[in-house]
Amino acid sequence: MSEQHLPAFAPLSLLFCRTAMAAVDSFYLLYHEISRSCSSYMETLALVGAWYTAKKSISLICDCYSLIRLHFIPRLVSKTDLSKQYGKWAIITGGTDGIGKAYAEELASRDMNIILISHNREKLENVTQAIMKTYQVEASFIVADFSKGREVYLPIQKTLSSIEIGILVNNVDVFYDYPQYFTKIPEEKLWDIINVNITAASMMIHMVLPGMVTRRKGAIVNISSASCCKPTPQVAAYSASKAYLDHFSRALQYEYASKGIFVQSLTPFLVATNKTTSYGFLYQNRWMAPSPETYAYHAVSTLGISARTTGYWFHSIQFLLARCTPEWLWILITQKVNASLRRKALFHTPGKELRSWNAGTNFS
Ligand SMILES: NC(=O)c1ccc[n+]([C@@H]2O[C@H](COP(=O)([O-])OP(=O)(O)OC[C@H]3O[C@@H](n4cnc5c(N)ncnc54)[C@H](OP(=O)(O)O)[C@@H]3O)[C@@H](O)[C@H]2O)c1
Predict the structure, then answer these.
(1) CA of 37 to the centre of ligand 1 (A)
(2) Is residue 238 annotated as a catalytic residue, yes or no?
(3) What is the pLDDT of residues 201-232, one digit of tens each?
(4) CB-CB neighbours of 256 under 10 Å
(5) CA 221 to CA 300: how far, in whole Å?
(6) For residue 294, how far is its CA from the centre of ligand 1 (angstroms)?
């Protein structure tokens, strides 16, 4: 720019500067006026902020305390005598594999006699023999396929009528083959989810609870899932069945605690069982997905202490985070994880549904 043009711009920039300063001055004045007239609102807002922060801090401290009290202290003190506290016999449904089997072994290691109920006779025989041999306790089994509906309960009731049941563990479940939209689930699978996940637990409790109430002692453990804490799309029926178990357990605990019965809702995240092998990295990370044995060891130590827990310390941290997570974020994450698991499953078993997926079919 040549120098002879400069004087022509000078008044313009002066005017601009003055206007800007006047604007700043008037904004400052305005701000001052507003803050003077709003000082009482400000103080109220500050008080609300301080109250909210204090409330959150206290609840965080309480959560940390209960985490330590529940997951670490019981393992430092001597183990509770479960058979004395609840009764000598424990029943575990679906006790031939995964968490159920590990839970049965953990109870046997604590001197409980064991009854396993599952649908595979050969597996039942093997696990029962192994438990008797390893832990020197009595063990027995009942063959029952819970997906068959009402007819399976009468023989179970007859067998159990002469036994004093101290602990009932409702562990059996049916899961999706892979995460799927509701209309794509075969009708038979849907009946299985309802019959096995909901009906079996309710009927088993209905069967053993009266005896426990008469003896004024007993414990019922319902294995729900962390997926019950918020709606989980693409495993909708499964997560709803687990929410049923969670609510049911908590309500029963209110009804029967005064009668000497302890009802616990266990809400684990991932445990490394056959069911979760497709979870890849999560499955391999032992902090996040403990082995069923580690999980059972931790979960049994919470029995009688917490009526609702994940049963494992790292899962409790995850549960706290999940509880604070807004629902939209939970849905976003679970939708992504489940969609990827479905893609992976369909990739390995290509067929009709894979073509639908690739064609971008609307699954709603
Ligand atoms: N694994 C996890 O990450 C996880 C996470 C949250 C909650 N959970 C809950 O924990 C519990 C155990 O899970 P898991 O992974 O250990 O399961 P799993 O390894 O699949 O074991 C399920 C058990 O149930 C038996 N079973 C299946 N269908 C049956 C039927 N119709 N009648 C009788 N018995 C039947 C199975 O017998 P067979 O082996 O003979 O089929 C097996 O013993 C479930 O309630 C599940 O929802 C698990």
Answers:
(1) 65
(2) yes
(3) 999 999 999 999 999 999 999 999 998 889 99
(4) 18
(5) 10
(6) 16
Write the CA distances from 33 to 22, 28, 30, 156, integer angstroms.
16, 9, 5, 79
- Residue 154 in any domain: the answer is yes
Which residue's C-alpha comes closest to atom 26 of ligand 1? Answer: 94
Q: Which atom of ligand 1 is nearest to the CA of 196?
A: 31
Is the CB of residue 233 less than 8 Å from the CB of residue 338?
A: yes
The answer to whether the CB of 97 is under 6 A from ligand 1 is yes
Domain count, the chain: 1
Range of the domain at 152: 79-325
CATH code of residue 210: 3.40.50.720
Whole-number CA gyration radius for the chain: 29
Q: Lowest-confidence range among 12-21, 93-102, 148-157, 238-247?
A: 12-21
Is 118's C-beta closer than 6 angstroms to any atom of ligand 1? Answer: yes
pLDDT digits 0-9 by tens, 244-267: 999 999 999 999 999 999 999 999
274 close to ligand 1 (CB < 6 Angstrom): yes
Active-site residue identified among 238, 244, 256, 295: 238
